[in-house]
Amino acid sequence: MVEIRVMDAKKTTSIIKENLNPLWDERLTFEFRNLEPEDLNQGKCKVMVYDANMLRRNVLIGSFEFDLVSIYYKKNHELFCQWVTLIDVTGQHEGVQGFLKVTIVVLGPGDEQYIHSEDEMLELTDLFKPLMPPSIDPDPWILKTYVWRYEHMAIADRTSSSSDPYVEVEFAAAKIATSPIKKQLSADVRKCLTLKVMEPVLGDQIKVWFKDWDIVIERKKKLVTLKWNTHIKIKKGVQDDVLGMKVFSWEKAKASEGKEEGYPVHWIHLYGAPDLVSGALADKMNKGIIEGCWYRGSVLLQLAGKHIQQDSKTEIRQEVTEAVWDETASPAMERWILQ
């Protein structure tokens, strides 16, 4: 079974039973109205292939991720009959888990889908040989995000006039997050978040979310589960608040492997909606979809891409580890007073 997620919507194909080389030939259409331009710029399409189970949870085989804007600016606004590499982002299985051929089309107002001729279809799709994908040589990388400190974070908890901030990194259909630091608006974090990345990837946007920890509801067979592996019965509708979000470039992060520094240690400043203000407009501000009007905190961080040699015996793990702070790496600071 294939599950497609575009922004906050998801759809699935039919289930093909007991087949390692399935052929779906299905079309899934997503329609969105009243989108801001930044929605498309930040939007992603996640393709996930599952081993479907009737009684137990579906098991992820592998996934791949695209930036919608990168597809929109391709010829004919499409990625046509492209083989993609499926990687297990859960970290349970190393290496390539399979290949999937997809066509993805992104159309805006006034756009029309290009219709390929029969000759083009036969030439490009290899329609009669679906079980023989072309050779794709995966190239292993890791993305390291160092979170050193945050200061003056926005207040998200009305009762305590504080927040429980944590950081979540999202890239190449994978996510990883730190544990929250409770009731502190300024604190040393000193964590390194490591994500596995298998080139080639068609997405370039690394999303770094800054959130306030709250009870998150996951319902399955009437079991309510708290994040961080705690179990309790709670009311419906409580979600993690977004304190801010920043987008970084994977290509620039990889530049740290050479002479140029990708994203060295630096402060980023978050802007969004005023503290304790909610609603659709505030949500768009906090997610960076529209320009924020309120300072919501600063975070000292660093991003770096590192290439892993194919013959390396080092096990690549998706993990959060302690990071040792080097005082000499601290950026120069100047204090200003506005009168």
UniProtKB/TrEMBL annotation:
One Pfam family per UniProt: C2
Name the record gives this protein: C2 domain containing protein
Any one GO cellular component localisation term in the record: membrane
Organism lineage string: Eukaryota, Sar, Rhizaria, Retaria, Foraminifera
SMART domains membership: FerI (SM01202)
Domain C2: 1-84
Keyword list, A-Z: Membrane, Repeat, Transmembrane, Transmembrane helix
Chain ranges passing through the membrane: none
Natural source organism: Reticulomyxa filosa
Membrane topology of this protein: Single-pass membrane protein
Predominant place of localization: membrane
UniProt keyword annotation of Membrane present: yes
PROSITE patterns reported for this sequence: C2
Any single GO BP term: plasma membrane organization
Subcellular location field: Membrane
